[in-house]
Amino acid sequence: MTKLVTEDTGAFYQYYPRVAVVVTAQASGRANAMAAAWHTSISAEPPLYGVAISAKRFTYQLIAESKEFGINFLPFAKAELVASVGGSKGSEVDKFHRFNIAREKPVKTAVPILKAAYAAYECKLVDDRGYGDHRLLVGEIVAVHVLREALTPEETLDLAKVSPILYLGHDLYLTTSKDMTYLDRKVYGKR
Amino acid sequence: MTKLVTEDTGAFYQYYPRVAVVVTAQASGRANAMAAAWHTSISAEPPLYGVAISAKRFTYQLIAESKEFGINFLPFAKAELVASVGGSKGSEVDKFHRFNIAREKPVKTAVPILKAAYAAYECKLVDDRGYGDHRLLVGEIVAVHVLREALTPEETLDLAKVSPILYLGHDLYLTTSKDMTYLDRKVYGKR
After folding, report:
1. Beta strand B119-131 with B68-73: parallel, antiparallel or unpaired?
2. Mutate to test the interface with B, among A114, A167, A183, A191 (most CBs of B within 10 A)
3. Phi and psi (nearest 5°) for A188?
4. In whole angstroms, what separates CA A88 from the centre of its chain?
5. I need a surface site. Which of A63, B24, B143, B164 has the fewest CB within 10 A?
6. In a mutagenesis test of the A interface, which of B126, B145, B188 is the best target, namely the one with the most A β-carbons within 10 Å?
7. ∠ CA(B30), CA(B117), CA(B155), 5° rounding?
């Protein structure tokens, strides 16, 4: 087993897999959807969610104008839709029309919510900051859309009901194992 | 199938699963390791990585002092170690000693690198910013440690060789499916 240590980070794909989401936005009568893997929760109270997007993206322009964005979580059966919105340009084509993407009504913003999503967040932009070749957009989650059946009573994803889309890089998609392990941190922290 | 729409975000666990990492830091002769799931790549060039940490954490204090942190990716077989460092306090116990955590030498920083990691990043802090109940720490990746065998020639994770740790929330851990699907975005974007 060889451990390579290098200062040449290259494309550094080691942090994958990550849940692939569809980021949505609208402004001035135009809407768009893009695929993203660089996203994370940042705060629980208030609930803040961040996503890194290139300023070159059409979606970024819409968010910068409207100060709102949506984060949509789709089941693995919809991975082709993620590839479709990931491989097309919203400045050139109306992706909702082209890919026949069904929408639901947002409640606190005007961002498109995908009907196929098992969960979606409506976010109001609270920060937009440049880091290297991307901008980090931080939004406060002002409404949650969730398929109740996708969650257990403890609010975690019910993997018997829904399979999330994991992205590995280089157009490779997978999902989770079905089995899981409970490791009580209170017990393991005292070993 | 009932879609719930709510402004009460609750604990909002819908964005899981996420790769669980061990964040490491040292300062003034003390070192620590903590578990984290709120992390993401933010920029490719320069390579920037972000992680959200509560300012209450001992690890945060070490990073604020040293301006450096490590991100360690462990195989699923080491999920118990993640639960152990996640369930104990670095201000009270030397976790490296308690849990017998083997380390490797860092090359560009002084952050602890875990021997069990299939990949690890040495990061120099470039931003530290408060968002709600957490702080977002952004670091430039200045060195990468990687088990060459864990990656394919295309630099993606080789899931036949390594199983990443996915965290689902509420002390539940799982890994990825073994099979994956290639969906060429250039093809799907033109459907």
Report:
1. antiparallel
2. A183
3. -70, -30
4. 17
5. B143
6. B188
7. 135
Instruction: Give B-chain residues touching A43 at CB under 8 angstroms.
Output: 52, 131-134
Mention every residue, 6+ apart, whose C-beta is less than 8 A from residue B140: B46, B47, B48, B123, B124, B126
Which secondary structure element, helix H or strand E, spans residue A119, and what is its range? strand A119-131
The answer to whether residues B140 and B48 touch, using CB atoms and an 8 Å cutoff, is yes
Cα separations (Å) of A122 from A26, A104, A175, B9?
12, 12, 24, 10
Structure tokens at A5: 């240590």
Give the integer Cα–Cα distance in Å for B34 and B175. Answer: 20
d(CA A115, CA A95): 15
pLDDT, tens digit only, all 191 positions of chain B: 678 899 888 778 999 999 999 999 999 999 999 999 999 999 999 999 999 999 999 999 999 999 999 999 999 999 999 999 999 999 999 999 999 999 999 999 999 999 999 999 999 999 999 999 999 999 999 999 999 999 999 999 999 999 999 999 999 999 999 899 999 999 999 98
Encoding tokens for residue A8?
Answer: 């040449």
* C-alpha to C-alpha distance for B9 and A121, rounded to whole angstroms: 9
Find the length of chain A: 191
pTM value is 0.97
